[in-house]
Amino acid sequence: MDGAHRRAGTLLGTVGTALLAAGPVMLWRGRSSRKEIRTELAAQKITFPDHGLPAELAAHTGRRVETGPEAHAYAQFIKGNLAHATGGRTYAEISAELHAAGGDDEKLAELRQTAFMGQSLRASLMSAYQAWHLTTLVTGLGAAFTGVGAAMLATADALTSRSSNHS
Fold first, then answer.
1. What is the reported pLDDT for 87?
2. Which of 41, 71, 77, 113 stands the most exposed, by the fewest C-beta atoms within 10 Å?
3. What confidence tens digit (pLDDT) does each residue in 78-108 have?
4. CB 60 within 8 A of CB 49
5. What pLDDT, on the 0 to 100 scale, is given for residue 103?
6. How many angstroms from the chain centroid is the CA of residue 38?
7. Separation in Å, CA 73 to CA 8, 97, 126, 135
8. Which residue in 71, 43, 41 sits closest to 57, CA to CA?
9. Is 46 helix (H, G, I), strand (E, B) or coil?
10. Positive or negative, the Cα torsion across 91, 97, 103, 104?
């Protein structure tokens, strides 16, 4: 049985060491990535308007977009404005209308450009929002790996100490 304890202790110690090494790296990368997202969003100088926001976004009135949730909220703001401007049609739908009209309808061409810019801006903000969630995941996993790694090393130490005491 002592040999089994020793082998289990060695395996737990190896895996624990790997997790204990990976955890802090993940914590550091998660936090540094979140800081990078904040820096990039702040550099865009996007600010919610002081008035005219829909009720569900009113809490953001006058605030700068600097976090993932704020990027998501602003993307929702753009979505509403875009739906109003395009009558709820997407870039693809307007492009199809323009093509069906022979491609020379100036009003549809301008509307297509508006839809393209709005959807592109919205997609960029949604990417920041998704990246924000990934930083949360990476940071959480880093903390979990660190804790589990430390627990595994403590267990490995107890197993190898028990094995040594019985020899």
1. 95
2. 113
3. 999 999 999 999 999 999 999 999 988 999 9
4. no
5. 85
6. 12
7. 50, 30, 9, 18
8. 71
9. coil
10. negative
